[in-house]
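Re: weekly structure request thread

Next one in the queue (149 aa):
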Amino acid sequence: MPIIKNYAKDFFKKWSHDMSYILGFIYADGNIVKTKRGTHFVSIYTADKELLKSIKIIIKSEHAISERNSSSGKVFRLQVGSKEWYSDLSEIGVFPNKSLRMRLPDIPDKYFGDFVRGYFDGDGNVWVGEIHKNRLSPSLTLQIAFTSC
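Done, posted below.
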């Protein structure tokens, strides 16, 4: 018998700044899964537990945050069992095993920045350092990068 937990069931039905941010985060560090038993899950992963706690509050989730050890360190996961979210996210463009074939969804211009911010928080990084060290005047550089398929 499933354990019923509360969460914002309509969260991915209507565009908002929070919805777009979390959608971007899912595109970067999340997935959707339909099991052989017919259950549907949406999972969000990150090494930043405090960020995941913030997401949990935004989606009004009562689900537990689990902790796992990976080769790169601790990873935290928030997993919501929901056919409705699975369906809503599928309609937007999220699908199982998305890593090598995902496409940018059709995001209203008003929310595009929030989507990018969510994606960056999931798979972006900032690096500061010197480049061209073999030149007479190396350059101090700030680089911002996104990881993607």
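The mean pLDDT is 91. The beta strands are 30-34, 40-46, 65-70, 73-81, 124-131, 139-146.
Next request, please.
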